[in-house]
Inverse folding.
């Protein structure tokens, strides 16, 4: 059945669109953008007043963890998708499942089946090794057939170089994309935070930046050896930024992303032993944080990941040592990103969330032009969001909970369907 | 001191200022006099109930706190568990709230997890005293160490203190560094590089890997125990080799042109970090440290309970 929607009185944020920075109305029909003009008179089934908010192509989050199937009380596919939609995302790439994990094609099929009609589309990632332990290959071909978009390894994997090589070779021969997470647990050991100026005073062993950039160097060598393009999830230190910058300058097929919290906070955030900031990769120094912003601004870093890693109150409300790594960051994503931003204008920043994020993920490009698929995000930079208030996320480990921040997501259009976000 | 809020907890040396430490010392002076008198007790905390929660093995710190509490007239309840509350299936918060519901006013806690006292202070309604949280802080040990230096040398300010040994796994070292610096001492850490946190210099300390160099520099050497129980891997080849490099012996002390004060937070591994003749020598104030521990802990508990810190 044909269904139409017009969003009126918005400012377009899409440098690739001829309507960029213009005040327009946008009409959507059958899931496609049908018309963009300053004043659309064609009637629609649904009219939305954009109230001068900004409209961009739909945002994509390249990395979210959802512990469903297995532990849906921590975050279900439904609550994660709703929280992602409220954060402005129309698509998220998600590593789903704790028990079973996404090393089984059946898990991936289940995720796709259950998330078919959710407000934010879930594109499943799958594990490239059995149980994500980094030892034996998973059934990557069957996982791809089941709907896996790309592959990565488990948070605690620390594969031998020979296993990494085998994984990249096998995946590349099948034209499958394995994403690297270079901060490996073999380096982490008992350490809980960045090795820098803060950990010594807290009595916590540190994870040196070397734990990441040495592995990234190895990844780059594996790329040169296998010819497989490299997508690096979640870099956190200045040395990694420089390595990616150098690789890109050589014309190598490399993409990189940075987690939201690493753009926002440093290891000082852990001085009160706040478990919400115990994340992997760890929050590093101010110098690293600024280097990440520079990398994002000059295009060395392509995308920003929420690195959303939900946990329940029982897992989170324990001593720092015993709390799991990870923070539930979807409920604060957009306002926290604005708060952290110091060197990019909002249009540039938002491009990281759509065009550059789609490139990182290997998704077809989308722009705000007639004939394009209507995945859209309506947002502003002035409105107020109270973190966690009215959020659909059921996670307990939300940083800045109940803090008011500037920046509001008004709603999204996913596949032509509008869903508003209550303030 | 009148324009600020009083401390409700002693979670670490971090958070204290010099004036507060001097207040603790002056109060401890009074209690030390009391302890050396015939009566030894005061009813100052007779309406206060204190729970000693030890989630990690301890002998001297637990006994020292218990004696301090009893000599202040407090009601005391002891809870010891070598396994953490999490491993037992009950959360720390539940464990402590259960005990607090029996009308306990203060909690003295030792716990293997760094930050456990901060965590508890955020989530339960009681005054918390940190008796050692993992590799983070051991504030009363640092206070009694500095108090003992003050007693022996007249003042802490301007003194050179070296802390020797396993700095990486030592809560005593971190608290000592902060406390001594607040009081104006110059602090060095000494040990194999594998047992010294890489960025320890950010705490403003000197770093040496040569014991002779360190003891030639210092006025006071605080010898730490090698904490094999905290080491998940070997950080040096053998105790024999460690002792050869970092063990303090009478021969090494004899080569100095001066006398230095020897300290140790205990328990001592005789023949490893310190030889028996050094531990028992007149330069050693190890037993005075233990004695001062009771006075310092009495002072801390008294000042916190009376909201005078």
């Amino acid at each position: 059945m044909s269904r139409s929607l017009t969003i009126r009185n918005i400012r377009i944020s899409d440098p690739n669109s001829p309507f960029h920075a213009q005040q327009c109305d946008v009409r959507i029909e059958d899931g496609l953008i049908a018309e963009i003009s300053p004043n659309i008179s064609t009637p629609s089934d649904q009219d939305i007043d954009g109230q001068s908010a900004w409209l961009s192509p739909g945002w994509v989050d390249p990395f979210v963890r959802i512990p469903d199937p297995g532990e849906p009380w921590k975050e279900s596919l439904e609550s994660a998708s709703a929280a992602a939609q409220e954060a402005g995302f129309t698509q998220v790439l998600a590593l789903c499942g704790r028990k079973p994990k996404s090393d089984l094609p059946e898990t991936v099929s289940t995720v796709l089946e259950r998330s078919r009609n959710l407000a934010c589309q879930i594109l499943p990632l799958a594990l490239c090794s059995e149980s994500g332990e980094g030892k034996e290959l998973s059934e990557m071909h069957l996982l791809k057939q089941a709907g896996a978009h790309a592959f990565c390894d488990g948070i605690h994997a620390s594969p031998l170089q020979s296993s990494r090589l085998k994984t990249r070779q096998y995946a590349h021969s099948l034209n499958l994309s394995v994403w690297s997470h270079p901060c490996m647990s073999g380096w982490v050991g008992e350490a809980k935070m960045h090795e820098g100026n803060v950990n010594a005073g807290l009595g916590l062993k540190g994870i040196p930046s070397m734990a990441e950039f040495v592995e990234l160097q190895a990844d780059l060598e594996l790329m040169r050896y296998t010819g497989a393009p490299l997508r690096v999830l979640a870099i956190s230190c200045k040395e990694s930024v420089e390595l990616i910058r150098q690789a890109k300058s050589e014309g190598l097929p490399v993409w990189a992303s940075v987690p939201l919290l690493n753009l926002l906070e440093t290891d000082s955030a852990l001085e009160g032993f706040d478990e919400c900031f115990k994340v992997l990769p760890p929050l590093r120094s101010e110098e690293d944080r600024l280097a990440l912003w520079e990398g994002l601004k000059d295009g060395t870093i392509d995308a920003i990941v929420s690195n959303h890693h939900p946990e329940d109150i029982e897992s989170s409300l324990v001593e720092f040592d015993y709390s799991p790594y990870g923070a539930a960051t979807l409920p604060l994503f957009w306002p926290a990103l604005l708060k952290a931003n110091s060197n990019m204008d909002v249009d540039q920043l938002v491009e990281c969330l759509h065009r550059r994020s789609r490139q990182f993920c290997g998704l077809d490009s989308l722009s705000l032009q007639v004939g394009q698929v209507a995945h859209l995000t309506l947002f502003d930079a002035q409105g107020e969001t109270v973190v966690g208030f009215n959020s659909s996320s059921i996670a307990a480990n939300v940083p800045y909970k109940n803090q008011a921040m500037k920046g509001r997501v008004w709603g999204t259009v996913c596949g032509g369907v509008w869903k508003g976000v209550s303030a | 001191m009148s324009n600020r809020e009083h401390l409700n907890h002693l979670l670490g040396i971090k958070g204290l200022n010099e004036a507060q430490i001097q207040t603790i010392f002056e109060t401890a002076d009074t209690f030390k006099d009391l302890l050396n008198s015939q009566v030894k007790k005061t009813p100052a905390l007779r309406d206060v109930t204190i729970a000693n929660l030890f989630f990690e093995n301890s002998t001297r710190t637990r006994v020292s706190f218990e004696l301090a509490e009893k000599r202040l007239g407090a009601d005391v309840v002891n809870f010891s568990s070598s396994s953490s509350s999490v491993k037992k299936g009950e959360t720390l918060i539940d464990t402590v709230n259960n005990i607090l519901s029996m009308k306990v006013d203060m909690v003295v806690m030792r716990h293997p997890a760094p930050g456990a006292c901060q965590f508890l202070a955020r989530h339960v309604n009681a005054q918390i005293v940190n008796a050692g949280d993992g590799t983070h802080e051991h504030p009363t040990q640092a206070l009694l160490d500095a108090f003992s230096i003050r007693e022996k040398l007249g003042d802490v300010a301007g003194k050179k203190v070296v802390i020797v040994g396993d700095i990486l796994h030592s809560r005593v070292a971190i608290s000592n560094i902060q406390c001594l610096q607040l009081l104006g001492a110059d602090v060095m850490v000494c040990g194999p590089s594998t047992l010294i946190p890489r960025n320890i210099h950010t705490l403003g300390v000197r770093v040496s890997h040569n014991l002779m160099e360190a003891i030639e520099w210092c006025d006071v050497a605080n010898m730490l125990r090698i904490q094999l129980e905290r080491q998940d891997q070997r950080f040096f080849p053998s105790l024999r080799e460690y002792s050869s490099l970092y063990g303090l012996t009478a021969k090494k002390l004899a080569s100095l042109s001066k006398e230095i004060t020897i300290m140790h937070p205990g328990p001592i591994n005789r023949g490893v970090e310190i030889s028996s003749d050094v531990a028992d020598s007149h330069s050693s104030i190890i037993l005075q440290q233990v004695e001062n521990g009771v006075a310092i802990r009495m002072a801390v508990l008294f000042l916190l309970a009376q909201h005078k810190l």
